[in-house]
Every structure is written in C-alpha cells, then in structure tokens.
Specification:
This protein is mainly α and about 200 residues long. It has helices spanning about 10-20, 25-45, 60-80, 90-95, 100-115, 115-125, 135-150, 155-180, 185-205. The protein starts with 9 loop residues before the first helix and ends with a helix.
C-alpha cells in the first residue's frame, strides 16, 4: 500500500451515496458499500491476512469491546427524543425497502453478521495504524455515516455522531493494536450495529 491508499474510500463513499440518494434503496447502499470495498481490496491486494479477523490474544479486549459497544443501542434508545429524529423516518426507511418485519429481520441479520468483518478489515486493517493518537483513518471511517444520517437528524446531531464514531474508530483501532488482531473490534462492531439497528426498528415500528 502506498500513500494512494487514501483514494480507496472514494468508491465505498460513492456507493453509499448512490444507494441512499440516487436509488433510495437500503440494500443497494449496503451491498454496494460492501462490493465497493471488496473491489478496492481486489485492486490494492493488501498483505493483511484474513485470519486476523478471528485473532485475539487477550480475551479482556473482547469482553471490553462487547460491554462498551452494547451501550450504543441503549444510549440511542434513551436519547432518541433528544436527537430530534425526523418524524417521517419510518416513511423514509419504508420507501428504501425496510417496510416489513421480514425485511427488517434480514437487513439487521446481514448488517450485524457481515458488515463488521468487512468494515474492520478495511478500516482498521487496510487503512489502520499503530498510532495511539487520533488518525486520519478514524475520521474517514466516521465520515460516510454522515452521508447516511443527512436528512434524518439535525446537522448538530450529525456532528455529534461523527465525533462519537471517530472516537469509536480510534477505540477499535487501539483494541486491534493492543490485542494484535481484529476479533475484539469485530465483535464490538457487531454488538454496536445490532443494538443500534434494533432500536431504530423498534422506534420506527
């Protein structure tokens, strides 16, 4: 990988934008995001072994990630009204294909079980760093969430979310560095994704 690696997030960003705003389809955004990442990985051919996704040397990092990240959904539930989520969010999500219990179940299952592995390999693996300081990769990881949140919460809440997600990216990167593997971050990410989507579904039902 060279300095040009920072061009690699462009395609995933475009895929999310196209899915959310051009095609207005949640599945197109998610699958397009994943396909874009896999395409980028096929082009750049990173030398990070896939088995790093299942590697953890210190179980306490796994436990810490799972406990810490489970607070994501809990926090969203209790702060929902404070976040000033737009009243038509259920209609927005319904128009994007999340319009039945079955569609939600499949979407949450796929997002929770597949997305963390792809994202952690890409953001913390390929675009990761051993630095203990805030790193540009933490910011780039958080940024695409702003594309998803636009029009659903006020700009001030988007800014709050980007700061929170930058911190989460930093935390997962530190976990991967200290634990010498990506498993702790993957499981933390999985719990965060699952708990957040569960709350969104509950609130939009």
């Amino acid at each position: 990988m060279s300095d040009k690696k920072w061009l690699t997030p462009i395609l995933p960003y475009l895929a999310v934008w196209a899915g959310v705003y051009l095609f207005k389809d949640a599945w197109f955004a998610l699958i397009g995001f994943h396909v874009a990442i896999l395409l980028v990985l096929a082009i750049v051919r990173p030398n990070i072994p896939i088995n790093s996704l299942f590697k953890s040397r210190f179980p306490q990092w796994v436990l810490m990630n799972v406990i810490f990240c489970s607070a994501s959904g809990i926090g969203l539930y209790f702060l929902w009204d404070l976040f000033s989520v737009v009243p038509d969010l259920p209609a927005q999500l319904g128009s994007m294909g999340l319009n039945s219990p079955v569609s939600w179940f499949v979407f949450i299952a796929y997002f929770s079980l597949i997305n963390p592995f792809i994202e952690e390999y890409f953001w913390r693996g390929v675009l990761g760093s051993n630095s203990k300081k805030l790193y540009i990769g933490d910011l780039v990881y958080a940024g695409y969430h702003g594309v998803v949140l636009w029009g659903k919460v006020p700009p001030s809440i988007i800014l709050f979310a980007l700061i929170t997600l930058t911190s989460a990216g930093w935390f997962w990167r530190q976990s991967s560095r200290e634990d010498e593997g990506l498993l702790a971050a993957v499981l933390g990410h999985l719990v965060a994704d699952f708990s957040i989507l569960l709350v969104v579904h509950w609130m939009c039902a």
